[in-house]
Amino acid sequence: MSSKFRILDCTLRDGGYYTNWDFNKDLVEDYCKAMEVLPIEYVEIGYRSISLDGYLGEYFYCPEYVMKRLKSFMPSKKLVIILDEKNIRPEHLNDLLEPCKPYISMVRMAIDPKNFERAIILAKGVKAMGFDVAFNVMYMSNWKENSTFLDLLEGLEDTIDYFYMVDSFGGVLPEDVKEIIELVKSKTNVPLGFHGHDNLEMALINTLTAVENDCVLVDGTITGMGRGAGNLRTELLLTYLNSKNILNFDFTKLSAVVNDFELLKNKYKWGTNLPYMFSGAFSLPQKQVMEWVGMNRYPIGNIVNALNNQKEAIQDN
Amino acid sequence: MSSKFRILDCTLRDGGYYTNWDFNKDLVEDYCKAMEVLPIEYVEIGYRSISLDGYLGEYFYCPEYVMKRLKSFMPSKKLVIILDEKNIRPEHLNDLLEPCKPYISMVRMAIDPKNFERAIILAKGVKAMGFDVAFNVMYMSNWKENSTFLDLLEGLEDTIDYFYMVDSFGGVLPEDVKEIIELVKSKTNVPLGFHGHDNLEMALINTLTAVENDCVLVDGTITGMGRGAGNLRTELLLTYLNSKNILNFDFTKLSAVVNDFELLKNKYKWGTNLPYMFSGAFSLPQKQVMEWVGMNRYPIGNIVNALNNQKEAIQDN
Q1: Are A204 and A175 in contact (CB under 8 A)?
Q2: What is the value of pTM for the model shown?
Q3: CB count in 10 Å sphere of residue B249
Q4: At a CB cut-off of 8 Å and minimum separation 6, what does A259 contact?
Q5: Rg of chain B over CA atoms, in angstroms?
Q6: What ipTM did this prediction achieve?
Q7: What is the structure's pLDDT at A315?
């Protein structure tokens, strides 16, 4: 396996779905200091956003003092924030991104393919401000059926630094990863990234498959903390790569941060289970599953039955 | 994917590593009744064994009243018991297996390749008593380096009904599964089985790869309950196969039994974690990891450090 790919850890950003983007200050400090010494290239610390309804915590808005503090713990890392494209318009960019300039290397954008044209306009604005730009494009399991949006990538090599395929439902298998990469490569030369979810326990093998098929940037989170069934566990990827002599690092540092997040996991219980497996296997949205499971009130059977009833009419996010 | 393969569930046998082979009577009844209606061909209910030192529970010995009771709940299933070859000699077979005859269809044998010759002698004795015989041969991740024992399979097609490859360390990847199957196929025509572990979250993809490469029998346990990081989760395999229209079944029944075992999982906490990932990636024995993790006294970092120190001198079981 090539060692040319890089790892992005997005624990605070994707983990925030469980904590409403609030994290204990000491935990964040420990996390950042671990990232600083581990072979992680990019650390995504949260969203930047216009004010949205309802309470959303520190790492959903990442005010300047947060960025400044985190950068001080991770001076050698490239820090990343993400914009949720559906809420952000070009006129918001100045307020949102100007304060990022001293701290943030790359701006990712979470994009529904149906808004792809609008996203490209926004990306040009982000790029003009001097940031690297990554597209995190959702619902890759549907692209084989509907890939026309990919044609819009033509000529955008100078605007988009990374094009991420996001397995939003956690439902793709390695063969699908290969096919979808071929499809995307046939449309663009933008370097590729992969963001996996673990509903079917495919996060690691899909990520390794992506790397073997020329993806240069892949995502993980500590203990897999992340929406629904969660993400590729950064420690699983690192341990595997270490065993193959691809990466070397201090396991004590990795262990300590994993331990911290395992304690949180005992409380929030991310990770796959039958309802998430079901939503992954059938490409059903996990947003609602997450609410049902989180309520701890519904037996697994009721959730699976409700999902079964939903197989026809699908929407997420 | 072919639908010619069959599933064996070994929740009570492999899960027993966490409960010392004791299970609540009602839980077992619910489990058996779920198995009876799910598309599972074989149900392995435990070990049969000579008396060993220390306390070992009901499903380590499977006395006749246990076999009789479980068969009454699962009249349509083929029940299986397993012998740990290292403890069982031909002179034990009569006492151990004669009481099984009314209830048990197949006897599996857990075998260390280094005892392969002795195992064949035992297998002939088991076969002569009228049972189907399955070899569960451990440490498949080492076979590429040492496969001479496989030569002994020649001419045993009438003695061994299934030859199982066991990923004892949970460390193989799909490419390894393919290669090892090719290796075994070059030596024997005995139908193949695969028993995966989940240290690297490869249990499902390895099992699917095994099936695509002609394995006809594959193992799972409900919620993955099993030694160390645990097994392929039966519900994950069934859900995936259902989504591909290969198997149909009642999700309500599956959900109920998964729910029962999730409650046990909250107590015993099987599933992969950093120490199990490490032992899987480096083919280290998970028996000791399991003790360390189970004691709940050692921080993950200490366990990983101890494992690191062990990388050179390896033995399990």
Answers
A1: no
A2: 0.94
A3: 15
A4: B299, B300, B301
A5: 18
A6: 0.92
A7: 44
* Interchain CB distance below 8 Å, A251 and B308: yes
What is the pLDDT, as a whole number, of residue B2?
Answer: 64
Q: Which residues of chain B does A308 touch, with a Cβ-Cβ cutoff of 8 Å?
A: 251
Put simply, whether B256 touches A (Cβ < 8 Å) is: yes
Residue A120 banded pLDDT, cuts 50, 70, 90: very high
CA–CA separation, B196 vs B219, rounded Å? 7
Whether B259 contacts chain A with CB within 8 A: yes
CA distance A233 to A261: 11
Task: Tell me the shortest Cα–Cα distance from A90 to chain B, in angstroms.
Answer: 41
Indicate the length of chain A as a whole number.
317
Torsion (CA) A169, A171, A172, A173 in degrees, nearest 10: 150
Q: Which residue of A has its CA nearest to B173?
A: A205
Percent of chain B residues topping a pLDDT of 70:
94
Does residue B94 belong to the interface with chain A, where contact is any CB pair within 8 Å?
Answer: no
How far apart CA B217 and CA B219 sit, in angstroms, is 7
Helices (H), B77-233: 93-97, 116-128, 174-185, 203-212
The owner of tokens 């390895």 is: B206
Query: Is B133 an 8 Å CB contact of chain A?
Result: no
Is A308 touching B (CB cutoff 8 A)? yes
CB A280, CB A197: distance < 8 Å? yes
Cα(B255)–Cα(B252) distance, integer angstroms:
5
Phi and psi angles of residue B110, each rounded to the nearest 5 degrees, phi first: -85, 120
pLDDT in tens, B145-202: 999 999 999 999 999 999 999 999 999 999 999 999 999 999 999 999 999 999 999 9
Token pair listed for A71: 């950068």
- Residue B28 near residue B70, CB atoms below 8 Å: yes
**Cβ burial A160-194 (10 Å sphere, 16+ → b, else e):** bbbbbbbbbbbbbbbebbbebbeebeeebebbbbb
3-class secondary structure, B310: helix
Main-chain dihedrals φ then ψ at residue B165, nearest 5 degrees: -95, 125
Tell me the CA distances in angstroms from B260 to A36, A299, B249, one per residue in order. 42, 10, 18
Q: What percent of chain B has pLDDT over 90?
A: 84
For A9, what's the count of Cα atoms within 13 Å in the CB-facing half-sphere? 30
DSSP conformation class of B227:
S
As separate numbers, helices (DSSP H) first and strands (DSSP E) second, chain B gives: 13, 8
CA distance readout (Å), B215 to B1, B70, B139 = 12, 27, 17
Selecting from B252, B259, B274 the residue whose C-beta is nearest the C-beta of A235 gives B274
If you average pLDDT over residues B116-131, what whole number do you get?
98
Record the tokens describing residue A268, joined without a space.
Answer: 């929030």
What's the full length of chain B, in residues?
317
Taking an 8 Å cut-off on Cβ atoms, the answer to whether A205 and B202 are in contact is yes
Residue A96 in contact with residue A62, Cβ under 8 Å?
Answer: no
| CA-atom Rg of chain A in angstroms | 18
Contact B262 A300 (CB under 8 A): yes
User: Which residue in this structure is represented by tokens 């009602």?
Assistant: B26
